[in-house]
Each structure stands twice: as structure tokens, then as C-alpha cells.
Amino acid sequence: MTKQTYIGNGRNKNFYFTFPFFSPDEVLVKINDIVAVEYGLFCNQGVSNQDFPFTGGHVKFTKPPKPTDIITIERNLQYNRVIDYQETAKINPTTLNQDMNYFFESLKDIKSILNEFNEKYAEFTDTKSANDLKERINAVTEQIDDFAEQIETIGDITTIQTSINSLSQSVSDLTSTIATHTTNIGTNTNDIATLKGYDYVIESQTPTAENNYTWYRKYKSGWVEQGGYVSQGGGGISVSLPVKMSSVNYHIILTGKHDSNTAGSTTSVSTMQGTHPLQTTGFYVNNYVENAGNRGNSDAFWWTCFGFYEITI
Prior knowledge:
By secondary structure, the protein is of the alpha+beta class. It folds into 3 domains: 1-76; 78-195; 201-308, Immunoglobulin-like. The chain is built from 3 helices and 16 strands. α1 packs antiparallel against α2 and α2 (127-153) packs antiparallel against α3. The protein is elongated, with a radius of gyration of 26 Å. 14% of the residues are buried.
């Protein structure tokens, strides 16, 4: 994977990525699809320059992205020749390996772009055109796979050159095909936006260590489903919602976790009220384990809540 996406939380400045690359200039950072400028890039050196000079790293922003910001870190290889082999000159194996790796990674990126286009836009076009476009994309994808196998075995250079010429022509033809569908995609997108009674997810987050193992799904109608895991027991545990609710009239489900072989041990997990009422940004939890009238701290708990989120204009 050469693209990683995160959701800001208003606190975290550091965001990590693991894909390989050849130069720091090839790491593209965006916030809400706009190229970011106020950040530092820290690169991990590769094990061998014959493979990849860099293998992952992290981005550190000057200011933490906002909770609603979408941060993307992706590889942006430059499609140009950096090495010119001479007919009578000796080929350096290290130089050849680097050149082949760069070309192989470029093919993988092209394949990823084609797959993303196929999944994202084909469903919006008319059926016949969508099928035709999908067949063209699949054909080019198969050519990329075949050529990747040739690179791995490094056979006859003449055969590889023939494949390159064929692939270049196929990509050129596909570019023209994509251009003819742009108008249809825009028209059908507007038609979908006018549909009534159809709700769908417009934004989501998966649980990771960076977001404290919280997740959510926001729907176009304003409905939100969100939850998380808290590895803490006792009283007065604060739970912060990744998505702010429109009011405190939302539904909460709590499930306690306690690893014990003692018979009669039961978990007791509940929201705190009174001095700690529900808030649109979070709530407090008591998480205990009880046995024969004795109370102790439980290990952890899962939480889920449903309701309508706050919409800002």
C-alpha cells in the first residue's frame, strides 16, 4: 500500500507511513485534499540501496490537525528517466536493480490508480459504457501483471522493450477513454445527490493506536454510530467521543471485560450521572468487578453510542 489515511483528533502531530520510496520529494502530504506545507518529514533509511533508499517514516505537523481533518500520506513517483544506458558501456548491477525497482514500483502505482478509478467511478456511468471501461482497465491491469513477472525474471531486454511499447500505447488509449467519461460521471453524480430517502456513509474512521482505538461512521442524514475500547477499570473514567453529538439525547451501550477464573465474579459497568452528566463530547463510566459483595476494579470495557452528530456550517 502506497497511501495511508488518518483522521485528526486535535492533539496528535505525528502520523506514520510504511511504504518504500526513493527520494523524500516523492512523499506527498495532504490535509482535506490540499497539499500541506507546515510539517517536517522524517525518513527511515533502507537496509540496502540496491532495493529502496527509504522504507517508511513519519510526518510531524507544526500544529495538530483538527478532529475533522483528513490526512493522507502517499507516494508520488516522478515518471521520467533518471538513467540512460549506453550501447557499449558496462551495466552496473546496482544501477540496474535500482532502475528496475523504480520502474516496477511505478507499475504498481499505476495499477493501484486504475483499481481505485474502477471502484470509484464505474458505478456512476451508464451500464454499457461502464462495462466497456472496466474491460479496458482489466486489460491494462493484466498487461501490468505480465510485465511485472518479466521484470522479476529479467529475461530478454528486447522482450521487455516490446512490452513497454505495448503498455505505453494501452495507457494512452485508456487516458482518452477516461476523458470521454468525465462528463457522464459529473452528470450522474449530480443525479445521485438529488435522490431522496437514501442514506449512506460519508465519513468513517477505523480504530488504531493513534486515535485511542475509537471508530465511527457518519451518515449523510446526520446519524452517527461510534465506539471504542478503554483498557481501564475503576470509577470516573472519562470517555471522549471522536464525533461531537448534537445533544445529550443519544443511546449508549457498555460491555465490561474481566479476565478471572474466580467463580461468581461479574462485571458492573455503567455511566456516571449526578456530578458527571452526559455531554455532547463524552461521558463518564464506572467499571467494577463484584464477587460476594466485594468490589474491585475491572480490566476494561467496550462502548458504543448512537444518535445524531452536530453539523457545523
